[in-house]
Amino acid sequence: MDYISGVWTNVSKFASHINPATLSGAIDIVFVKQKDGLYKSTPFYVKFGKAGVIRAAENLIYIEVNGKEIEQRMTLSESGVAFFEKQQQIYANTKSQLNRSSSRLRHKSEPSDNSNIELDTLQVLSAASRALSNPRLEEECDIQLDQSDAFNELTLTPEEMQQFNLHEGLNEAAFSVTTQFQGTTRCCCSIYVWDQTAKVIISDIDGTITKSDVRGMILPLIGVHDWAQEEVTQLYSKICDNGYKILYLSARSIGQAGATREYLRGLQQGSLKLPHGPLFLNPESVFKAFKKEVIDKKPEEFKKSCLEKLQNLFHCETPFFAGYGNRPNDVVAYEHVGIPKSRIFIINKSGELQRTINQTRKTSFKDQSCIVDLFFPPVNQNSG
Length: 384
Known about the structure:
- The chain is α/β, with parallel strands linked by helices.
- The protein has helices spanning 2-17, 85-109, 119-131, 137-148, 158-163, 213-218, 232-241, 257-266, 286-295, 300-311, 328-336, 365-370, 372-375, and strands at residues 25-26, 29-33, 39-41, 46-47, 60-65, 68-76, 82-83, 155-156, 169-179, 183-194, 200-204, 245-253, 268-269, 272-273, 279-282, 320-325, 344-347, 353-355, 362-363.
- The strands form four sheets. An eight-stranded mixed beta sheet has the order 7-6-5-9-10-2-3-8. It has a seven-stranded mixed beta sheet with strand order 15-12-11-16-17-18-19. It has a two-stranded antiparallel ribbon with strand order 1-4.
- It starts with a helix and ends in a 9-residue tail after the last helix.
């Protein structure tokens, strides 16, 4: 009976993880020091589930870094997405244009009742009506929103880094918003500060660290935690001991960030856990991310874009040294950011690793951990 009760509890928890109304999450962030002394970041992707932020008191998101609240704030949109001030202004201008267009459309057809119409509905109605006369309109609107993402990428001076309470290596951040009925809702992420010498190893999660894509996505959420590849913690730990950084990359949704981060940090094999490293996920909804990863099998679209954003912060051709995955899509994404085929390792369903350049020779996580210096020669070690 206790077992059934435990399963029910885990299933209920899993249901909350896939409900878009309750999903909140934040994707990890990387700052990289530039030659001029400034620090540039990957985008801040922070999202609060609509059910958790009903009638937010101020629409302000407070930020804590390493346990200290900083002066910088973010703004909460009606869809639950966090923006810095400049990006929020672009969002507000776009929303205003869509609202005016929808108002004109309703004036021709039926009385307006703004109190019961969601912003998403207004956008659909407006875009559909205006696209009849301008076929490029929806494309232009999407481009405008995409360009606004750049304002969630920060460039900070060393003094501003101190104000953000950031130091080299791993930092912990929390984003919180206070609502009228639910109190304070929080979501957390990690912020890493690297320099230009970083050599990065990319690891896919589902089917690479876990034993399969679908079950690896679902089983940990319902309490099954022993679905990991053998010796993966040992190899990754030794790689990082040799001075490399590790980046965990998955096409899972931002709404699964908390559960995924908890899984990675909780995975233990013997006395070893996975080394710390930034977790990059798909900022889209959980259903879109799941469809793209499992049904469409096109996660490389997101992965290529995501890796490019980090690559662009470095002055070298590529900071990426090697990559681990389990599908041809991972090969496409890794080659796109300059990883040679000789350092791309694909794991099959039997847990065997093979290089894309020599598919007849197979190894394993355990084999590579025994000769890790051969695959990953020691480099100068830096924090993080």
